[in-house]
Write a structure and sequence with these properties.
Length: 177
C-alpha cells in the first residue's frame, strides 16, 4: 500500500508540475515588458488565443529585434519587404526548402551552411562562373535522364512525371511519419 501511495503522489506531482510549467510558459499579455508589448501590439487582441509555441516564437523575435542595431533593423525590414513582394508560390517553395533543410541531419546542415558561406565570400565573377558550371551540369544530368528514359522505352515527360510522383510519395510518407 505504501508503494501505491508513493506512486500516486509521484503521478499527481508530475501532473501538477506539467500544468504549472504550461502556465509559466504561456505568458499573459500583462506580464510582458513594455517594449515587448509595444513590438507585439498587433497581437494584443488575440494573444490569449495563440498557442504557447507561437507566443514563444513571437517573444524570441521581439527580443532579437530589440538587440539589433539600426542597420540590422533596416536590413530586416528590407528582407521582410522582399518576402512580402514575392509571389505566394515562391514563398511556398522557400518554406518547403526550409522545412527540408531542417529535416536534414545536423552535419549535413552544417556542411550546407559552410558551402553557402564560401559562396558568399566569392567575387561576383567567381559566382557567375560557378552558376554557369552548375547550369551546364544540370543540363548534362537532364540529358542523361532523357537518354536513359529513351533506352527504357519511355518519353522524357513520362520519366519526369514518374520522378515527380515518386518524390511526392516520399514527401507525403515523410510528412505522415
Amino acid at each position: 500500500m505504501s508503494d501505491r501511495k508513493h506512486l500516486l503522489c509521484g503521478w499527481l506531482g508530475a501532473v501538477y508540475l506539467s500544468l504549472f510549467a504550461g502556465v509559466s510558459l504561456a505568458q499573459e499579455w500583462q506580464s510582458l515588458s513594455d517594449s515587448e508589448r509595444q513590438l507585439l501590439h498587433n497581437f494584443e487582441d488575440r494573444w490569449s488565443q495563440l498557442s504557447d509555441d507561437r507566443r514563444e516564437q513571437l517573444l524570441r523575435g521581439a527580443r532579437r529585434w530589440s538587440e539589433m542595431n539600426p542597420e540590422q533593423r533596416q536590413e530586416a525590414r528590407q528582407q521582410y519587404q522582399r518576402w512580402q513582394d514575392m509571389p505566394r508560390e515562391r514563398r511556398a517553395q522557400l518554406r518547403d526548402s526550409y522545412r527540408r533543410f531542417m529535416d536534414l541531419p545536423e552535419e549535413e546542415r552544417q556542411r550546407i551552411r559552410e558551402a553557402r558561406k564560401r559562396f558568399r565570400q566569392m567575387t561576383p565573377q567567381q559566382r557567375r562562373e560557378l552558376r554557369e558550371k552548375w547550369k551546364l551540369d544540370k543540363r548534362d544530368r537532364a540529358d542523361r535522364r532523357e537518354r536513359r528514359s529513351r533506352r527504357e522505352g519511355r518519353s522524357h515527360r513520362e520519366g519526369q512525371r514518374r520522378e515527380r510522383r515518386e518524390h511526392r510519395r516520399r514527401r507525403e510518407s515523410e510528412d505522415r511519419a
